[in-house]
From TrEMBL:
Start and end residues of each O-methyltransferase C-terminal domain: 166-376
TM ranges: none
Protein's name according to its UniProt entry: O-methyltransferase C-terminal domain-containing protein
One Pfam family linked to the record: Methyltransf_2
Residue ranges with Polar residues bias: 159-170
Domain of life per record: Eukaryota
Keywords: Methyltransferase, S-adenosyl-L-methionine, Transferase
Region (Disordered): 159-183
Amino acid sequence: MVHRVIKPSPTPDLVSLARDVLRQTEEITKYLEGNGFSVPLSLQGRRAHLKPRKDLTLLADGPKRFWRQLCGFSWDLGAFQVALDSEFFTLIPAVDRTERIVRQLIAYGVFAEHEAGMVSHPPASLAMQGEEFRCFVHYSMRERLKSSAANGFYLQSGSSEEANGNQDSIAKQHGTGAYEQVAKDPEHSEIFARAMAGWKKLNVQHNDLLQDSFDRANRKGTAIDVGGSNGHISRDFARRYPHLTFIVQDTNRDMLRQGAVKLTDDIRDRVSFMEHSFFESQPPIQGVNACAFLLQQCAHNWAGPDVVAIFKALVSGLESAGTDTPLLINEIILPGRGEWSRHQERLARQMDIAMMAVHGAKERTRAELEALLKEADPRYEIRTVFDDGPLGVLELAMFLGDAVGGNRVDVGCPKAQFEVVDDGTLLPSSITGQTILKSL
Ligand SMILES: C[S@@+](CC[C@H](N)C(=O)[O-])C[C@H]1O[C@@H](n2cnc3c(N)ncnc32)[C@H](O)[C@@H]1O
């Protein structure tokens, strides 16, 4: 695809255009006279006006070209309509600054200019056609850059060693935590959720260890995707494991809505969306046999005391599900000294710095995560750790001991009533104030 850049095209010269028409008319007239054809009335003695230029064109084209053009014109109109619908005429403002920015991107090879003034899309630009990937880059520029710049300043202004989740640099600028800030703006929520999906797609191996864990366990029932954003992982996994169902929990309604809209027929009945804060106890969900709780890239957004609160809130869900149902924590598990190559470690540490700047939080080692888990509930037991990938998996069981016979526990909560909504809107439940959204 080739765009013309920014230069105003020269205004057509009316006089030379008229001269051209006149010259062509004379040639046609000469040809007609020279070959014994009668000159049509419209051309006789009126060369200078050429008001019926259209007639001249029709005459010169002949009947077949006329019909061909007439039939083809509808396609041209369609192209114009697309150009208008997609705002081709206004997307790139024709101002000096646009050209300068485009030129810098050309210098990076993001755009190309093989011919002066003609800008085209090389692979670096074509890669941005994918919506989720583009959102990942967009989010990184839009949000992270600001936080990174502000980080040093706010750390100097007396932040504790590990800041409280709502005391990070963004919170200090806006007076709220990063996710509260995201939730205020539906467009921001959408970009963020797509950015998370884009980040995963950037390195498909990010889901490998989680997938291994699912493959090994042969789970049956419903996986609860806690803090699951727009459910991009649950949707992927629902396609991969047709015998499983998924409930995606998040507090951001726009993300949940976005996920419901993205459901396709093959998974529509197996993925549902529920508004739930992971700081609140997991409510038992009627008729649901929870086969795993997933906490993917959530703990790293929060400071230690917040993470302890999240782990505590999951206990009721694990208790009612039983010992076979694990909590799967899926995030970077920082390596010990020299365990990873420097290249791998740099990428992990980059994310750690991002968590410091954006959330006042951090990536953690296995030992750090274990200490927080034990603080939340000493019955948490690490069953397996896979920390050899960009996103590790910590498989945890809740040791329920003799008191519960090592099996299911009735935690004595009244069953929550969730309203299943089938038109894409959220309905609060009259009993619990929770909401569930399911696209049928
Ligand atoms: C880093 S994203 C991870 C999303 C998803 N698990 C993934 O791996 O792509 C963190 C998610 O936590 C959600 N979140 C923030 N506060 C929450 C809360 N109190 N309860 C539930 N989810 C929350 C955010 O809306 C966001 O979707």
